[in-house]
Model the fold of this input.
Amino acid sequence: MTYLSRFLYLFICGAVQIFFGAYLFLELMGADLGWPIKGNAMFIPGILIFITSGILTASYYFGDRKKNNALYDEYTALRYYKIGAIGYALNGIGIFILFSIQDWSNWDLQSANRMIYQIASFAWLIFGILIVWFSLGDYKEHKNG
Amino acid sequence: MGKHHRNLLNELARLRMEKGLTQQALSESAEVSRKSINAIENGIYVPSTVLALKISKILGCTVEDLFKLPK
Done:
């Protein structure tokens, strides 16, 4: 694993996640985008994250030790924790807002189902943005920092 | 020369240069990334105890020579 390959893995995962997360979220919020995505395609971001997590985990445990000292050092971990914390905070606010805008007077199973999907797609979108942010910052710091 | 973190004054850049080491060389000896060394020197990051001890050992000084609390 190198800084460039890590950047590419994370950036692609994040960008794909943003695309699907934003699409699903907008559709659920009532915006008719007019170009339906087939249901099976919704698995793509999940599969990408699963594969990328596997590659990163394998590189951490079985990769070149000298390279890993730099790639997975404490400063990088701190950046990751900070961005993760921002993600949880934004998702907390988002879930609160999504709860607040529901029509609770006409609540039924369909509304509950829709709200669960809204929350999931919102979290998906936020973490996609944060993965892209992390990947760009990480690579930029490696080059210039 | 480097800048200071609000909670920690550091002399890392000066002591590193006195030893004739580049950020890259120091980072390899300390087993961290070059950007970590750069972040410490510029007051962006406060290193862990282990990293501070490693750096002081490499530079042949004490941790107190490298880092001080602001008055």
